[in-house]
Amino acid sequence: MAEHKHGSMDTTEQEKTFDGFMRFSIWTVVVIIVALILLAMINA
């Protein structure tokens, strides 16, 4: 096996993927909150 050096791995792709996932998650939560507010206003 090759020698592993801690902290030498290139993580740019993982960081891009995580940033995309966080952006998607935030927008999903915003859409759900807006939908809940609209439902509450319609039924009030």
Strand content: under 5%
Shape: rod-shaped
Number of strands: 0
Listing every helix as H and every strand as E from the N terminus to the C terminus, the arrangement reads: H
Structural classification? mainly alpha
Whole-number radius of gyration? Answer: 20 Å
Average pLDDT, rounded to a whole number, is 92
Unreliable runs, pLDDT <50, ≥5 residues? none
Distance between the termini: 66 Å
Number of helices: 1
Q: Largest sheet at a glance?
A: none
Helix content: over 70%
Describe this structure in words.
This protein has one helix and no strands. The termini are far apart. The chain has one helix spanning 12-43. With 44 residues, the chain is an all-alpha fold.
Which key phrases capture this entry?
mainly alpha, rod-shaped, 44 residues, single chain
